[in-house]
Design brief:
Helix content is about 25%, strand content about 45%. By secondary structure, it is α+β, with helices and mostly antiparallel strands. The relative contact order is 0.13.
Length: about 280
């Protein structure tokens, strides 16, 4: 019986064959995803809403804590920085909903009274924009009412965080939309794209902008001319999603003065909450 052993000349050919085989396997795996038909937008949005409701209803899930740094810059008409403010928050994820607590401003820790005052001011602003009651659950934000305002189109797939996502564009429906609060008027003029994790139906990235100017009391009190947001989200190995970093821009007018702002937020040091915290 003759046993064939690889010669020096055959070793490079063997390596090439293995490389080609691996490339073929890699292509087959990638192609199996890329050439799958795209799901209808109604199915993607329905799964997104179902996921949000499921997480919001969880009562025994572990809570996570992280730090959020928010840098806000006020700009002049030329785009130069007039003032800058840095705020540090401790954020708790409860039922998929972030609950921020301000702990530091411009590198200085606030006393108890100062923290309560800042948090109360921001909470009142959120209530005025959203509703009279504090939204304590995630499904009050990513809700049927919100999602029903837009029309959607699944445009393709993209890999984010090593995972397959569906790129979904959205724009306001042409029908008349409800406007009970200022936030409604803003929402009804937003367009953009979201990246939805195909396996878990979670938002992996958000990119939105204002399509037209929003006036306040017919323009007498001011107007919002531009608004944009790009938010990148991240996923822990445990399957927990959170806002990783975001950039926001606002341009408008408040009474007789112009308003131009740019804000950046980043998350860090996320960990599971322990009983001692």
């Amino acid at each position: 019986m003759t046993i064939l052993t690889p010669t020096r000349a055959s070793i490079p050919l063997l390596g090439l064959a293995i490389a080609l085989l691996l490339m073929g396997l890699s292509f087959d795996c990638r192609a199996s995803t890329e050439f799958q038909p795209l799901p209808p937008s109604e199915e993607v949005i329905a799964k997104l809403l179902h996921r949000a409701k499921a997480i919001a209803s969880e009562t025994n899930s572990s809570r996570y804590v992280y730090l959020k740094t928010l840098e806000t810059e006020e700009l002049d008409d030329s785009g130069n920085v007039k003032s800058k403010k840095e705020q540090l928050y401790e954020v708790k994820l409860i039922g998929g909903m972030p609950h921020p607590r301000l702990i530091r401003v411009n590198g200085r820790s606030l006393d108890k009274e100062g923290i309560q005052k800042e948090n109360a001011s921001q909470e009142n602003a959120r209530r005025n924009m959203v509703s009279e009651k504090r939204p304590g659950r995630r499904d009050m934000i990513l809700s049927e009412d919100l999602l029903s305002r837009f029309q959607y189109k699944v445009e393709g797939r993209e890999t984010l965080l090593g995972r397959t996502t569906l790129i979904v564009s959205f724009k306001p429906k042409e029908a008349r939309l409800p406007e009970k609060k200022l936030i409604d008027r803003v929402l009804n003029k937003l367009s953009g794209r979201v990246w939805v994790d195909e396996q878990e139906s979670e938002l992996a990235k958000i990119d939105l902008h204002l399509t037209e100017e929003v006036t306040l009391w017919g323009g007498v009190l001011g107007s919002l001319k531009e608004l944009s947001m790009v938010m990148d989200r991240d996923r822990l190995a445990e399957g927990v999603w959170f806002n990783k970093k975001g950039v926001f821009t606002i341009q408008g007018r408040k009474l007789f003065s112009s308003l131009r702002m740019r804000a950046r937020e980043t998350a860090s040091k996320i960990h599971q909450e322990t009983n001692s915290e």
